[in-house]
Amino acid sequence: KVRKALSKRIKARSTSGHAEGPYRSVDHFDSLATEDIPGKDTLDKLFKHAVQRFGQADCLGTRDILSRENEIQPSGKVFKKLILGEYRWLSYNEVDTAVSEFGSGLAALGQQPKSTIAIFCETRAEWMITAQACFRRNFPLVTFYATLGEDAIAYGLNETGVTHLVTSGELLETKLKNVLSQIPKLKHVIYVDQRKINTEGYPAGLSTHSMQAVRELGVLPENMERAIVKPQPSDLAVVMYTSGSTGRPKGVMIVHSNITAGMTGQCQRIPGLGPNDTYIGYLPLAHVLEMTAEISCVTYGCRIGYSSPQTLSDQSTKIKKGSKGDCSVLQPTLMAAVPEILDRINKNVMSKVQEMSFIQKTLFTLGYKYKLEQIKRGYDAPLCNALLFQKVKKLLGGRVRMMLSGGAPLSSATQRFMNVCFCCPVGQGYGLTETCGAGTITEVMDNSTGRMVENLKDKPNPRGEILIGGPNVTMGYYRNESNDQDFFVDEKGQRWFCTGDVGEIYPDGCLQIVDRKKDLVKLQAGEYVSLGKVESALKNCSIIDNICAYANSEQNYVISFVVPNQKRMTQLANRSGIVGEWEEICTHPDMEREVLNEIKKVAANNKLQQFEIPVKVHLSPEPWTPETGLVTDAFKLKRKELKNHYLHHIERMYGGK
């Protein structure tokens, strides 16, 4: 009954009394929350406070790599597989020592307070150690996704004028070495792993150091004595380069008080966050969602075990068959995810259900429907959990008590699936790098879905562009005033950011994202198509792994590019008597027709209008990953790049026009 009452309560109200808002959570109606722990107004103070409280407890964990193997596929492709051991843990005190030594070593190498320093590295313990060392000594940290292209990295490093860069041996050898000569101000490159780096052909004035060597430099008596310049709340903490869905990457300037304010709101949405929790870190730490989630975990004594999308579960691509993925070993209680990953989990489980016997499948379907009804009414189904969903829950280690999803809208179907099969609430976050990730997060007890999904409904609720205001709104873009028009300060001194998203406020104070301003296309006959809405609906199609809808105002119909699900598509092809390599299957005209038929069925179930349904399709044998440059690191579609990539197919599908 308590759960039900909480799910039905009013969540937010307009502070002005008018429909246009602004709207604010009823829990902090009189004033916005800015600090979670009173007096701890900078990131170094939060970490020091955590070390004092949790000194001997586990803080950051990394799995040992026991061996690497090459697995040759029937097609001749070679897959690299890992066999991993247990997690090795650094306590809070040990992390504190590493932070102290590394920060001292960077200062000894000439890094100055208030001067930017860059990190270009995968998500791992050394990333967090570097960040904390920089926060402590007031070195503003410039962050780049590990998947950003070489030119984008060179552009960002030159724009910020950094002299010191922290990276990994692998990224140094595969991506950075090609552009080092284009970054004249760079003097020191520090790589975080223990490997021998071949520096042949590197620019003459550039020095390379291992992280260990910099720490050893830091403990020399003359370096330990150097005074630490501590940051102020208004000092720059991070310049976060967004991979952006258009144009060159932009560096968002985030000060200490932005992050402490953003985290305050996030932490209040995770009940009971503390030393009994284990968080699995695998999303890019250069993404504001992951960075603020991990800093929050460290603040509250929750341990972080590091992972990667390729080693997350027993079925992950780099895990050798028969050995354990990271979730099985770590058994996390908290997890952040982007919809792309949750959709993938959903499809994997449902394809396993299809392979069950008739009786098993019937039982699963009945149990699923029953529990879904119970959740909608505000209750649980313990018997179904024990008999049916225990095995599914084990895929993520069996102990996940809450998931946070961000980066893009999560479909209602996938959110419901996670609620039912993994027996845990999924909190959807909405925010941007420009708002330090924090905008809105669903309450744990709120069991409605689809509030974040782009889904146009003409209801009499207030609608318009979403503006986010508060102490979490960042300071604009680094040396890029021309792009700062989206930020403004009102007459009360409150800072605001114009998101470019269109929202609708429900009577209970919940926000629904209904569209993206630039995703609306007016067709030749005058109808408006929301590309995001079309994609969101059609992603429910089991044969589709990813989809991009496309339309322009000179045409009267929508077309689409689809990355098909290889397993489903191959089965369908075999049934139709089509055999061949994956590329041949994808380019077969009959398969395009089959996929269009599937699209029509799903579109009808999702009540898409006739003019919204794609009339033609191009099937892509290659998946869209951040490495291909067709999606961002949060797996959002880069529409401009996708359009350019498929330009000749667009011309083909629009009859040469």
TrEMBL record:
Chain segments carrying region Disordered: 1-22
Catalytic activity, EC: 6.2.1.3
Pfam short name (any one): AMP-binding
Keyword terms, alphabetized: Fatty acid metabolism, Ligase, Lipid metabolism
Residues annotated as domain AMP-dependent synthetase/ligase: 85-478
Biased composition (Basic residues): 1-12
Protein name as it appears in the record: long-chain-fatty-acid--CoA ligase
GO CC, one annotated term: endoplasmic reticulum
GO MF terms held by the record: arachidonate-CoA ligase activity
GO annotation, biological process: long-chain fatty-acyl-CoA metabolic process; neuron differentiation
Highest taxon above the source species: Eukaryota
